[in-house]
Write a structure and sequence with these properties.
3-stranded parallel β-sheet, 10 helices, Rossmann fold, 5-stranded parallel β-sheet, globular, 16% strand
Length: 293
């Protein structure tokens, strides 16, 4: 029972957020619209898009999934984005990443109207996040922050180590937690592939956010007693006992770190469910013009 009390339940928290969205949606009288743009036949991307479609249907959002062939030109994709930028029924535009190699990802992300950038990847939103202005937050970092808040984690002044510096998770969560604001004010260190002696940082950390993309990277001897661990990793490793032949694990060695942690997210069932919940909230906020008038 003591071990269970340590586990951060992302499914439960995401359900709470969805219920809050439903309540606000009911009283608002608006129908949020989300355009999901999928290029190519990446199986993982197709699964993610279907999950987002399903959540839109559950909430009564207007959604469009625009699936394009892998060979679409960059100019063709830009034209498609321009169409949705000018569609009054669409409040959010999501480009499912990764894109084919012949397409410049930044050109595509910059083409999305930043007022409809519910993924929070446009340079305007990234810049506003950095300087502490209102903006659309990237969904996974926003979900991580919600987990910390709703589990009453004291963030202010805490030694927080972020493992990974991606534009999708590492950099934005570091920027969220370092802000001089309520539920932030952390002392943040970002470690990455060129960081020497990472263990020296992780052993001092009060909070660890692992988004490094290496299965079981954070071992039990790398953390101190009482640490809060948020595991963002999603890694497939071989498992001959499974029907699928693999199992999904995080960037943290869960079994080793669980006894030492005061709170820890499982994989799956931790951060994952939060991402879609935050996307739905961002899309509603866009429809209600809560972020940009």
């Amino acid at each position: 029972m003591e071990q269970l009390s340590k586990i951060i339940d992302g499914k439960e928290i995401s359900s709470q957020i969805i219920e809050e969205v439903k309540t606000e949606l009911k009283s608002s009288g608006v129908q949020p619209g989300l355009a999901l743009i999928l290029v190519g036949n990446n199986p993982a991307s197709e699964i993610y898009v279907k999950m987002k479609e399903k959540k839109c249907a559950e909430l009564g959002y207007y959604s469009v999934t625009d699936k394009q062939p892998e060979v679409i030109s960059e100019s063709g994709l830009l034209s498609l984005i321009h169409k949705y930028n000018n569609d009054g029924r669409i409040h959010g535009i999501l480009i499912q990443l990764p894109l084919p190699k012949h397409i410049n990802e930044m050109n595509i992300l910059e083409a999305v109207d930043y007022k409809k950038d519910v993924d929070g990847f446009h340079p305007v939103n990234a810049g506003r996040l950095m300087i502490g202005e209102k903006c659309f937050l990237p969904c996974t970092p926003a979900g991580i922050h919600e987990l910390l808040i709703r589990y009453n984690v004291n963030i202010a002044g805490k030694n927080t180590v972020v493992l990974g510096r991606s534009n999708i998770v590492g950099k934005p969560i570091a920027n969220i937690l370092i802000q001089k604001s309520r539920f932030a004010n952390a002392t943040v260190t970002v470690c990455h592939s060129s960081t020497e002696n990472i263990i020296e940082y992780t052993r001092r950390a009060d909070i660890i956010i692992a988004a490094i993309g290496k299965a079981g990277f954070v071992a039990g001897d790398m953390v101190k007693d009482g640490v809060v661990i948020i595991d963002v990793g999603i890694n497939r490793i071989e498992d001959k006992t499974s029907k699928k032949g693999y199992k999904v694990v995080g960037d943290v060695n869960y079994e080793e770190c669980l006894p030492k942690a005061s709170l820890i997210t499982p994989v799956p069932g931790g951060v994952g469910p939060m991402t879609i919940a935050m996307l739905m909230r961002n899309t509603l906020d866009s429809a209600l013009k809560k972020v940009y008038n």
